[in-house]
Amino acid sequence: MSRRIPRLFAAGTMALLLAACASTPPRVVRSGVPPYNQTYVVHGRSYDVLPTAVGYHRRGIASWYGPKFHGRKTSNGERYNMYAMTAASRDLPLPSWVRVTNLQNGRQVVVKVNDRGPFVPDRIIDLSYAAAKKLGMIGPGTALVEVQVVNPRQPAVNPPPPRTQAQGAPAPRLFLQVGAFSSADNAARHKAQLAARGFRPLTVDAGTGANGRKLYRVRLGPLANVDALDAAAERLREFGIKGFQVAVD
To answer: Average per-residue pLDDT in the chain?
Structure first.
């Protein structure tokens, strides 16, 4: 049975405002996750840490975590302070510094990555309450973002921030990449199998893989919002389909 992600609406008090983070899926306790291991395991799943943060650049869905973790130890031993500008990442070395840009409203923050997470599916970064508030994502609980590694001591060498919808760029579009094939026929066959199970809209996009060869990506979307993506992802899992990825254009 598909499960819907509950939403709590802030109304009048800080306690209810902070409860808005519950609009994202439930989180796991991060204690015990070593900061420097190149591979670690949480709830039976292995995660790999990148050997370097240099050049890290990714688009996806950001979430945030707040009162439940306030004061607890982060993965690098610091105490989590929901009012500090910090974040959690599954794969970046600790510590790292990243610029997070909300692709819709154009707001930006620079945060120190000092924790591991998020360990819920289909999110790329978990922000502190303070960082999430600056990005304007407390109420919704999530945002479509671009994450770029930066050097706060040498801003001149940092990559330029992305253009956003607020600056006249096209609105970001949300997809689930559900397969990637070197053969156009295999991609078309996979698309037909998914369509037969009721998944739509589906497209096959031709591109180039890391090895320079032609790659045909089967994508579900564009999806209306993060809730629609979460529902589609849950259906895919119910059918035993794994390995799909969030893509934000």
So the answer is: 87
